[in-house]
Amino acid sequence: MSVKQKKRGRPAGSSKALSKLIILQQAKNLLAEQGKIPTLRALAAELNVDPMALYHYFANKAALLEAVTVSLLEAIYQPNPEGQWQAEVRQLCHSYLELLSRYPGLLETMLKMSTDGPAQVFIARLEQALTPLALAKVEFEPLRDLLADYLHGVALAMQCNPGGIPVGCVDAPLDLIFRGLTSR
């Protein structure tokens, strides 16, 4: 009778210690492959560690989810606040849709989260892009909500039609939004 060997905190056969960065990278890889955030057990199995080892780096699955989604969103376009605002917003929107396309389960994961860390990344980037307009909070918030809801709808349509909807499909509607902003 054999006893199953327990996996401990370091990946087997590796001289590298387990770290937040390694865990986040593996979680992002699994998200890209599987279309959903992996369970802590599946992630630990991929890293060849005991699932409890992950709790040394993340308090719970919600903390891991936030770290993964924030890490992914930090890769979207970083607008230049001194650039031409329409081009900066357009590039930000394209970048965001490309990210959501590469990670199909990301949007659903973010929408189910109770924290707003990932949303804050996008909001901060949008504020940077719109710096030249000096929008008041009362003007910015409805624009932010409209744009986020529109982009999320496009992302869902893209998931339903893989390869059939290019990110450039948002350009004409963005132009309409831009005209509204410049006429205010």
In words, what does this structure look like?
The protein contains 9 helices and no strands. It is an all-alpha fold and 184 residues long. Helices cover 62% and strands 0% of the residues.
Question: What keywords describe this structure?
Answer:
Arc Repressor Mutant, subunit A; mainly alpha; 184 residues
Short description:
With 184 residues, this protein is mostly helical.
- Residue windows where pLDDT falls under 50 for at least 5 positions: none
State the end-to-end CA separation: 77 Å
H/I helix tally: 9
**Number of E-type strands:** 0
Give Rg in angstroms. Answer: 20 Å
- Structural class by SSE content: mainly alpha
Helical amount: 55-70%
Shape: elongated
> Per DSSP, what share of the residues sits in E-state strands of 2 or more residues?
under 5%
Overall mean pLDDT: 89
Main sheet summary: none
InterPro entries: Homeodomain-like_sf (IPR009057), HTH-type_TetR-like_transc_reg (IPR050109), HTH_TetR (IPR001647), Tet_transcr_reg_TetR-rel_C_sf (IPR036271)
GO molecular function, one term: DNA-binding transcription factor activity
Protein name: Transcriptional regulator, TetR family
Keywords: DNA-binding, Transcription, Transcription regulation
